[in-house]
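>> received
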Amino acid sequence: METIFEFTLPKGYVDGNGEVHRNGKMRLATAADEISATRDPRVLSNPSYLTIVILGKVVTELEGLPMVTAATIEKLFTADMAFLQDMYQRINDVEPPVMQVVCPHCGETHEVAINFTTEG
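>> returned
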């Protein structure tokens, strides 16, 4: 079973020297990753920080950086953040919630996935 996945960020992380880092690796999440993230003081004071803390745990490499932390993830461009959130969902088989909708034109009922991680 594959547990490490390579990626290339759409924009890239720009470090303090202006260097751009785009290639990296993400590992599968464990239950411990998600449980410990929910106990993180930053998440307790701001629940929307949960994604940043979890990505800081599962993104194991970003080319040229000694390590990746939540502080690194915070500094990503929003396009890169959305990319990593989507990748996290795909590799961990996180199923998005669905809802029943009725087409206003034909009246048929359809199931539509609700995606909370990207705009549009």
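>> The chain has one domain: 4-113.
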